[in-house]
Specification:
By secondary structure, the chain is of the alpha/beta class. It contains 16 helices and 8 strands. An 8-stranded mixed beta sheet has the order 3-2-1-4-5-6-7-8, sandwiched between helices. Helix 4 runs parallel beside helix 5, helix 8 runs parallel beside helix 10 and helix 8 runs parallel beside helix 11. It starts with 5 loop residues before the first strand and ends with a helix. The structure holds NADPH dihydro-nicotinamide-adenine-dinucleotide phosphate (NDP) and 1,3-dihydroxyacetonephosphate.
Length: about 350
């Protein structure tokens, strides 16, 4: 029998709602916070969130609230399920209600442009040490639409404090939702963020009418540049072969559920970025993360041809087909060069 906890879920979008269902299934009490009154009223009256996860009925353990105080006051654990760009806006609003040290979990996938911070670093900056026991990240190949149908899903948790990561593993794990641990916090966060860039590119390739060869090329060479940057930032290269690397790349580049893939698909079909984002109505993290990754590639002097091609399409008005042509016309290179360099930097003195 699981130890029953009280959890504050901050963010009643697709992911916060699906994860609330997992926690409710495990018998934990969830106070699901959102600012949209209509949305929260529906969660409490019909146990549904038709705005973000139509057709799904939430367990009785999940109670919606528009009050951060109500969500947080009884909670042992606070889960942040909001877009990266909302972190610095929402966290300060929570702080007045945190009276003792809590475990903080984030489930978001992004890097902040400008500061180039990972989300756990933003949280370290925004949440005073006196209020936090730990910061844990949960990431991996997990579309909310499938998690809420209780389809088999695997994810990974990581933290600087692995005993706290294990506590979060116990909180979420059940027979539909298998949770692994990985001590490589940098790799887990970087993989989750960068895969969204490659997923936008995969959508563009599909929108342009390219086939499976192009998709396989993007996934494989995308993984190479994710690992190249991540390793320079301190990640373990092996993490990119795991759930939060190749696993999340596969699911996001190949699924119609992915907002990043869908946004890319519309771009590939010739729609303008603004129109795409307007139509999506949900967060497309890969757009801002492309800006951050482009800055990181310059900061660390790491070659990231796919990321930089997307940067030019999104922010410099380059035509998508022309961007593909330039990628294909790059100078000849050795496929294994990255791997050799990574291994050399990590393991060869
Ligand atoms: N959806 C998925 O399958 C998965 C998503 N993720 C990650 O989870 C994070 C959240 O994504 P997801 O739930 O899908 O996004 P959605 O777009 O579905 O929902 C976003 C939620 O955040 C709220 N929100 C947005 N901005 C603010 C703000 N400034 N202040 C307060 N609330 C805000 C929205 O509220 P409102 O409705 O009122 O606008 C909404 O409840 C992202 O980083 C995503 O990459 C990770 C794994 C899977
Ligand atoms: O991260 C996700 C699946 O693991 C969700 O991806 P999208 O944000 O592209 O929908």
């Amino acid at each position: 029998m699981k130890d029953k906890k009280s959890v504050a879920m901050i963010g009643a979008g697709s992911w916060g709602t699906a994860l609330s269902l997992v926690l409710g299934d495990n018998g934990h009490t969830v106070r699901l916070w959102g600012k949209d009154e209509k949305n929260i009223a529906e969660i409490n009256s019909l146990h549904q969130n038709s705005k973000y996860l139509p057709g799904i009925t939430l367990p009785n353990e999940v109670v919606g609230t528009t009050s951060l105080e109500q969500s947080i006051q009884e909670a042992d654990i606070i889960v942040l399920a909001i877009p990266t760009k909302a972190m610095r806006e929402v966290i300060p609003q929570m702080l007045p209600y945190i009276k003792k040290q809590k475990t903080f979990v984030h489930v978001s996938k992004g890097i902040e442009p400008g500061t180039l911070m990972r989300i756990s670093e933003i949280m370290e900056e925004e949440i005073p040490e006196s209020m936090r026991k730990s910061i844990v990240v949960l990431s991996g190949p997990s579309h909310a639409e499938e998690v809420s149908l209780r389809h088999p899903t695997t994810v990974t948790v990581s933290s600087k404090k692995m005993d706290e990561a294990e506590l979060v593993q116990d909180l979420f794990i059940n027979h539909n939702f298998r949770v692994y641990t990985n001590p490589d916090l940098i790799g887990v966060e970087i993989g989750g963020a960068l895969k969204n860039i490659i997923a936008v590119c995969a959508g563009i390739a599909d929108g342009l009418g390219f086939g499976d060869n192009a998709k396989a090329a993007l996934i494989t060479r995308g993984l190479a540049e994710m690992a190249r940057l991540g390793t320079r930032m301190g990640a373990n290269p092996l993490t990119f072969a795991g759930l939060t690397g190749i696993g999340d790349l596969i699911v996001t580049c190949t699924s119609v559920h992915s907002r990043n893939w869908r946004a890319g698909n519309m771009l590939g079909k010739g729609h303008a970025l603004e129109e795409v984002l307007d139509q999506m109505g949900m967060v497309v993290e890969g757009i801002r993360t492309t800006k951050a990754a482009h800055q990181l590639s310059e900061k660390y002097g790491v070659t990231m041809p796919i990321t930089n091609a997307l940067f030019k399409i999104l922010f410099n008005g380059q035509d998508a087909k022309a961007a593909v042509e330039s990628l294909m016309a790059r100078g000849k290179t050795n496929e294994m060069e990255d791997l050799i360099n990574i291994l050399a930097s990590q393991y060869i003195e």
